[in-house]
Structure formats: C-alpha cells, structure tokens
Amino acid sequence: MVDFISEVEEELRKDDYNKFLRKYGPFVLGLLVAIVGYVGWLEWRDYSQTRTARAAAASYIAADDLLQDGKNDQARAAFLALADKAPDGYAGLSLMRAAVISTEAGNAAEAVRLYDAASARFDNPRHVDLAKLKSAYVLANQGAWDDVERRAESIAADGAPYEFLARELSASAALNLGNTDVARERFGYLANIPGVPQTIARRAQQALTLIDTSAQATAAPEGSE
Fold first, then answer.
1. 213 exposure class (CB count in 10 Å sphere: 0-12, 13-18, 19+)
2. Do residues 72 and 104 make contact, with C-beta atoms less than 8 angstroms apart?
3. What's the pLDDT tens digit per position in 31-54?
4. Where are the extended beta strands (E) located within the chain?
5. Closest by CA position to 140, among listed 165, 110, 114, 172
6. How many CB atoms lie within 10 A of CB 72?
7. Contacts 24+ apart (CB under 8 A), 168-172
8. Minimal CA–CA distance to 94: which of 112, 72, 77, 71?
9. What pTM, to 2 d.p., does this model score?
C-alpha cells in the first residue's frame, strides 16, 4: 500500500513538472540562451579589445622607432594613421606625439589643431587638460595671448590637474595684454597661497617684482617734475 501511494505521488510530481515545463519551459530556455550568449559576447569583446590594444601598441612603438631614427615626417604620418583607427587612449597619445613633431617643425597652427584633437579623444580628465595646456603653451610661444587667456581659463579651476600651471599662463597672458592689475592679482595668488609648487611660486614672485619695478620706472619721471 505504501509503495502504491509513493508511486502515485511520484506520478503527480512528474505531472506537475511536465505542466511547469510546458508553461514556463520556453521562458527558461530563452533565459539560458540569453545568459550563454551574453557571456560569449563578453569573452569576445575582451578578446577583441585585447587584440586591438596589442595592435595599437605595436603600431605606436613602430612610429616611435621612426622618430628615434630621425624620420620625423614618416613618424608623424604613422602617428596620425594610428590615431584614425586606435582606441581613444592610443589615439590621443598619437595625436600629441604628432603635435610635438609639428611644433619642432615650426608648424604651430597644426600643432594646436592636433593638441585640440587629442583633448577630444581622451577620457581621463588629466590627459584632456594636459593636451589643452600644451596647446596653450604653443599659442603663448606665438604671442597669441587672447587665445592663451581663453584656453587657460578652462583648465585653471580649483583642484584641476594642472591648475597652477594654467593660472601662471593666465597671469602671463594678462600681463602681455597690458592688464597689469589683473596680472598682479593672479601672480600674487600664486606667490602667496599654500600648495603652489615652489618653482611656480618663485616665478610668480619674480613676475611681481618685475611688475612693480616697471611701475616705479614709469612713475619716476612724473615724480621728478
């Protein structure tokens, strides 16, 4: 009797199981297929990214080798070609290397364009600001102080990676544009607040001395009359 009851219960369980499979089986199967597919896609993506990164690294090294051999034009072309197809990080670095070559060749406008392009290809804020800062330095060497002022302002925010270098550029721009009071204020900030690197603070103090000396020299003839 006990065996009979057990067999009946087993059949009922099988029947319930079959009903469950008929009702929910397609959904369960679809879920399993989706999970397997997603895991497979993740593995393919990781493999593809690794392969792409390795190829980009090899191309970057090859371009650098050309530069080390003194083949600047070929190296620049190789860096630019890599920037067109590489992941953003390598693309940004390649554009910056090409910008350096353009700067050394005396093509400042092209260097600025490439630095700007590099800043747009980076995700890391530090790298973005570095590209912008280098662009501003090129413009400063060309005496384009209005452009320097605008670019330095965007990277001189409190706590920004290159805040103090950008503030120094901004102060220099103000001075060269004839905005002496603004320049004195900006250099004074760098010369006196805690946390500014010593080299920047020292240059700021030297700039303040020059500003004051120039002001005294300008005022001297008026006082002697």
1. exposed
2. yes
3. 556 666 556 545 645 544 555 557
4. none
5. 172
6. 15
7. 168/200, 168/203, 168/204, 169/133, 169/136, 169/137, 169/140, 171/204, 171/207, 172/140, 172/145, 172/148, 172/207
8. 77
9. 0.72
